[in-house]
Design goal:
With 71 residues, the protein is mostly beta strands. It is built from no helices and 4 strands. The strands form 2 sheets. The chain has a two-stranded antiparallel ribbon. The chain has a two-stranded antiparallel ribbon with strand order 3-4. Strand 3 and strand 4 form a beta hairpin.
């Protein structure tokens, strides 16, 4: 899920190392809380992204997001 989130859409990242009792307390890890930017754009919005890389072989990728927002 985190691979699909654009960095431009994240406002703030909170690391909670000692979570309160309302969260399940299994394990020794903490909680990562992502505060997303609330966009107030009305109308049709689109995001498009391309990814390219070379490791053991070529890697290509693309994503497209289209949404309609009403008041």
């Amino acid at each position: 899920m985190l691979n699909g989130i654009s960095v431009a859409k994240i406002e703030k990242i909170e690391l909670i190392t000692t979570p309160p009792a309302k969260y399940d307390a299994e394990g020794m890890g903490g909680i990562i809380h992502l505060n997303m930017i609330q966009r107030e754009d009305v109308g049709t919005n689109a995001d498009f992204g391309l990814t390219a890389g070379i490791n053991a072989r070529e890697t290509l990728g693309a994503n497209f997001n289209l949404n309609q927002r009403k008041s």
